[in-house]
Amino acid sequence: MWRYRLCRQLFESMLWRTCVSWTAMISGYADKGDIDEALALFSGMEAAGEKPDMVTVVSLLSGCGQTGSLELGRWLENYALSNGFGDCVRVSNVLIDMYMKCGCINNAIILFYSMPQKTVVSFTTMISGCALNGEIVEALNIFFRMVKLGLNPNHITFLAILQACNHAGFLEKGLEFFDLMTKEYHIDPGLEHYSCIIDLLGRCGKVKEALKLVKKMPAKPDAGVWGGLLHACKIHHNVEIGRWDGVSRVRGLMKCKGVRKSPGQSHIEVNGKNHRFSVEERFHPECSRIYETLGVLVFTVTIAQNIIAEILNYWKDTQETASILMRPQIIGTFKKFVTPQARKEDRIEFHAHRLMKIFGETPIIMAKVCRKKIFTS
């Protein structure tokens, strides 16, 4: 934070400010997630008679994608079109990224296919966005379309397609792309690529294979790699590998050094203004009203849970009804919230997204910063 304050002081002390000066400050606040301050600087820039250029617009649009500021992003798209930036590939790429992160996949697809010129970045952004929104088949199709056009995927493209395979649990496809990257395109996998494929192996129950890959890695495994392996051991109850000396040593080292997961934050855009929430948020101006409403919701959900449990108990002996109600998907959904052993992140009173839903009004755009994902409600 002190760096931002120092930069702002230097900026305010400048006698002459150029477009580069304004853009640097806007970009800094946008990357930080402070989209309101970035927009204020953008307005101040125009008021000072300095015309924003393409880089300024791209910087602010990037911040819109991070924070889920869809309405501002749409306004900036119109601004770009009216100021001659509409045909700029870089602006189109960041617009696609913004729409994908805001969950507006159709807008992104229309924009992508209307682009007269597409680069590797354009295709990579689409693949990553499709993976983020669960459109895995579309992500694969776009990858193959890019290759067919003669564009060579880079290491970021392969990371995006591996993440798509990871989300869908496509183990064979993921391994194929991993081999394609190394053998045909001669791209050395980075830690992120290894982390992704190890996580995929673990999710699919191939814990031993994941450990073998960890041991074969040319680089030293980082926390992401070990975390994926430990998570797989936990899911598949693989105590043997979970207690393996290398894993235990890393776990102990992380505890010793006090390494902790940074708390996730969520953003919500309400009436054109962004609000930030974290788990068990207590500092929002509307905090008392939020938790009052939350208490009512928790009480209502508890009653609904009891009713559901009674219905299941009453109808469990009826063969036809039981065959519908007792399906694994339905029972799993009920158990997730009904059982006292429900995980902390599934309990409504702990969830940052629930706090935002109470505060906001429809339509809601929510951005979960820790995963760089946007949720729409």
TrEMBL record:
Domain of life per record: Eukaryota
PPR repeats mapped onto the chain: 18-52, 119-153
Pfam families the UniProt entry points to: PPR, PPR_2
InterPro entries, per database record: PPR_At4g14850-like_plant (IPR046960), PPR_rpt (IPR002885), TPR-like_helical_dom_sf (IPR011990)
Key words of the record: Repeat, Signal
Example GO molecular function: RNA binding
Residues making up the signal peptide according to the UniProt record: 1-21
A GO biological process held by the record: RNA modification
Name of the protein in its database record: Pentatricopeptide repeat-containing protein
Source taxonomy: Eukaryota, Viridiplantae, Streptophyta, Embryophyta, Tracheophyta
